[in-house]
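If you are new to this repository, start here. Below is one unmodified record pulled from the training split, so you can see the exact layout before writing a loader.
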Amino acid sequence: MENEIFQLQYALDTFYFLVCGALVMWMAAGFSMLESGLVRAKNTTEILTKNIMLYAIACTMYMIVGYSIMYEGGIFLSGIMGDGVADEWTYAPSADFFFQVVFVATAMSIVSGAVAERMKLWSFAAFAVVLTGFIYPMQGAWTWGEQAVFGLFDLGEIGYADFAGSGIVHMAGAAAALAGVILLGPRKGKYGPNGEVRPIPGANLPLATLGTFILWMGWFGFNGGSVLATSTIVDANDVAIVFMNTNAAAAGGVIAALLVAKLLFGKADLTMILNGALAGLVAITAGPDTPAPLMATIIGAIGGIIVVFSIVMMDKFKLDDPVGAISVHGVVGIWGLLAVPLTNSDATFAAQIIGAVTIFAWVFITSFIVWSVIKMAMGLRVTEEEEYEGVDLIECGMEAYPEFTNNTK
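And here is the target side for that same chain:
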C-alpha cells in the first residue's frame, strides 16, 4: 500500500512539473507577441526570429552543459533517463530538466526586447549560446543549485530567498540586457540633440496586449510549478496560495501603473499598463508563497509604480529599451527580492541585498565582457542605413506586413 501511494505521488508530481513547464514554455509566445507589438513593423520578423531561435539555443545549451553546471551533473544530461527513485527523487529527473530549461529561455527572452531594432541577429545568437550555457547556470548554481559562490560563501546559508526567480531569472536577464544596451547605444532618432526623448510607437498594441495576457497565464506555471509538488494536501494548498497571490500581484501592478500614468501623463497609457502587469508578476515571483492576498496585491502595486518611474528614468539616462524590459525585470526584480522579508521570517534584508549584488555583478560583468568580444569579432549593430530600412529585410529577407511596409519606412 505504501509503495502504491508513493507511485501515485511520483506520477502526480511529475505530471504537475510537466504541465507547469509547458505553461512556462508558452511564455515564449507571450514574449514574442509582446515584443513584436512594441517594435516597428519593419523589425517584426527579426524579433520573432530571435524569440524562437533563443528558445532552441537555450534548450540545447542547457542540455549540453548548463544543467550540469547548475546542479553538478553530467554533461549531455548523462544519467537523467532513470526514474531517480534510488536518489530519493519524488518526480522524474527529466521532468526537472524540462521545468528548469524553460526558465533559462525566459531569462534570455528578456534580453531580446531590450536590444531590439538595431542588433545583428547572429551577434544576438552568439550571446545566447554563452548566457544559457554558462553565465545563467553559474549564478543558478549559487542559488537553486546550493553551491558556494566561488567556494567563498553560501547564499542559502546566509538566508537568501528567491522562490521562483525575481533575481535568479528576471534580474539576471535584465543585467545581461543592460550590458548589451550600454554597448549597443540607442536607436537612431530616439533622443534629440538636447536630450529630449522622442517616442517611437510600436506597430501592434493588440499583439502586445495578447502577449501580456499570455505571460500572465504562463506565470501560474512559473510560480506555481516552483512549489515542486502538488500530491499532498499541504503541497496542493501551497500551490493554490501561490496561484492566488501571483494573480493578485499582477492585478495590483495594472491598477497602480494605470493610476500613475494618468497622474504623470494625463492619459491611460496602455504600454505602461501592460508593463505594470508584468512588473506585478516579477515583484511577487521572489516570494509568492508567504504573503496574504492583500499584501501580494500591494507588492505588485508597488512594482507597478516603480516600473513607470523607472522607464522614464531610463530615457533620461539615454538607455534605449524599446519594451521596458530592464525596468520590468531588473529594477522591479530587485524590489521583489527586497519584499520577501516583509512576509518571510526566514529571509533577511541583508541576505537579499547580498544575493542581488552577487547575481547582478556576475551577470552584468560577464555579459559586458562577452558582448564586448562579440562587438570586436563580428559587430553588434547593423549599419545606420540598415536600421532605417528595417532589420527584417536585412537579417531575414522578408517582412511581417509586406502589404503595409513596402512603400513606407
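Two things worth knowing about this chain: DSSP finds 15 helices and no strands in the chain. Residues 2-38 form the longest helix (37 residues).
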